[in-house]
Amino acid sequence: MNINFKDQKALVRVDFNVPLDKQYNITDDTRIREALPTIQHILAQGGSAILMSHLGRPLEKLNADGTINKEKFTLNHLVKHLKKKLKTKVHFADDCIGKSAVKKAAALKPGEVLLLENTRFYVEEEKGDEAFAKKLAALGTVYVNDAFGTAHRAHASTTVVAHFFDKDHKCFGMLMDREIANATRAMKNPAKPVTCVTGGSKVSDKIMLLEKFLDYADNILIGGAMAYTFFLAKKGAVGNSLVEPEKIKTALEFLKKAKAAGVKVVLPKDSVCGDKFAADAQVQITNSNQIPNNWMGLDIGPAAARQFAGIIRKSQTIIWNGPMGVFEMPAFAEGTKIVAKACAAATKKGAFTMVGGGDSVAAVNQLKLAKKVSFVSTGGGAMLEFLEGKELPGIKAIAE
Ligand code: AMP
To answer: What is the pTM of this model?
Structure first.
């Protein structure tokens, strides 16, 4: 962060969209913990922090009478926890703009924090409304964006607000810096060989990612349901597996492009199949292009998992997005587990391993392997778009 925060009132966009239980206790404070270094840095330099965030989707879940369910979606639920974590005064403004927010921001002393009410109480937030963003901007003297998870949205508090600060008065927060640095390290001049692993449900969701991987990957390993659209394209029998027949052409074109680019694409030789999409399904292992009628491929098979793991272990850079199977069900979690362990083993041998942009993050967390890979992104959709090579509006707004 290249700003001296002394005596500045830093307007910080954080991602405090944390899960809450029925009594509004925070059930997972990862997102708050991730934002603490940035806030602490600002306070330690003698600045104050005005925090803004969204929480849930209040405008999609209105009360029966059409009003906002403030009790459920207020950021006030987070104040006590923030006080405990930051060990300083945390004030709360029950509106993110307007008189009381202006007054509380003006009265804020160095070392103190003001948390603003949910920015998504205003329809203007997601619309990226200029006038609303200007009111937010007026609360601070500098702007810091540390909400990587929403950087792909051109919302008022994530993007438009930055237009009201010049280059010397806005910057990324530490979390955002870390996300950008790690993804850039993986994509630009990565140590070779580079292996990109992708899975999940749909070719249509991941085709842009696959095409981008062609720019720098040596190997692309494809697992998850999306593999079966490739097998279908190659005239294999895929039984009842989840496929997108309308993407056959896309799949064949991708394979052609990969061949021309000299990138090795590896599909799973075998599959763990179930007779239904359920945790208690009957299970059998078959070749992935010979799945019997009424059976569906729900995980990569043991031979495929061994092959994928072998390639990963020999790689210097690994980017992994998307689970290898229906990892939420133990009977179909083994492929994802083996890939995760291979990533951990490669990391131990010195490879750079980055997991991000989807459910693979949940898988790595579930397996308690998050600390054994080089970097786990908090980004979800934002990381997926970053890896696809798109320019994220939240990043662009700081850089320009
Ligand atoms: P995505 O959000 O596209 O990364 O997809 C993740 C979801 O894909 C997870 O919920 C997995 O359960 C699901 N998935 C992975 N493999 C399969 C498969 N072979 N059949 C059906 N769903 C799958």
So the answer is: 0.87
